[in-house]
Amino acid sequence: MGCLNQKEVKTISYTNPVGGMTRIGDPFVLKTAGSYYMYATSEPNFGYKVWESPNLVDWEEKGLAYVHFDQPEKWATGDFWAPEVVEYKEQFYMTYSARNTEGHLQISIAASKDPLGPFTDVSTQIIKQAGSYIDGHIFIDDDGTPFLYYVKDCSENVINGKHVSQIYVQKMNDDLTEVLGDPQFLTEPDATWERPYDEYQWNEGPFVLKRDGIYYLMYSSNYFASHDYSVGYATSSNPFGPFEKAIENPFLTKDLSQGISGPGHNSVTVGPDDETLYIVYHTHTNPNSPSGNRQMNIDRLYFEDGKLKVDGPTSTEQKIKVK
Known about the structure:
0% of the residues lie in helices and 53% in strands. It has strands at residues 2-4, 10-14, 25-32, 35-41, 47-53, 60-67, 76-88, 91-100, 105-112, 120-123, 133-140, 146-152, 158-159, 162-164, 166-172, 179-187, 200-201, 203-211, 214-221, 230-236, 244-245, 264-270, 277-284, 294-304, 307-310, 318-321. It starts with a strand and ends with a strand. Mean pLDDT is 96; it is low at 1-5.
């Protein structure tokens, strides 16, 4: 509902989780032309749903944005995970991952003139190195240079007997259909909260912000179906790194006293006031039984003395500024 506070700032109220959707994961929110579009892991057998909102709070399911069976080349068998969409050169580009017919996870690019889709593949299986790859994130730098941040998945990446998910980056071509040059390693689990001693380890879900010449690489760590799945970040003055992880990590983590379990795999968008940043993330729908059944949350994200901070995670009524 709308209201006016004492400073005459218009706000709307919300309480996490928002949108009413469950059985989703990895929510990504795009703002364009004054509306919001959310894409998520939602139909893992064949594609992705999309939701639309005028204000980040009230969401309506709008059907399927991407359907694998409608593509000219049906390259994948399932595990359609973690879609993201960027607006670039008057078109919308979706990066997503899925499992190919050889059993490897791969990243592909689809495009549409409409954020609601339908999205059509324009380049499939763009990472050419051996292995499995997920969680592609396209970042467009201030000079227009596109980069793809992505994860070398622990399912096939074995280092010293451990299965390790690592984050890499490569430049992209101007059509967002290929990666260029050699992959640049950025991060892997090494902090205690990331459990680098476990048999399976994760740094995944990269998302990049830039402020005052500094690149902020957000990522999720720990196990997605654990209470302890959380978000950390690292900083660098160069998109290729080296990145230094923040000592205050994780900066978004569980609060079981509020029923908040496993906050992770985030994106960031700007609010209806076109100024305030909001972090979008999932939590477990049933905190007593953490699993792939997740729901969407939003909270205010801000910078303070060069550090990333979140007013959250929250489960009580919050306010969003609007114009």
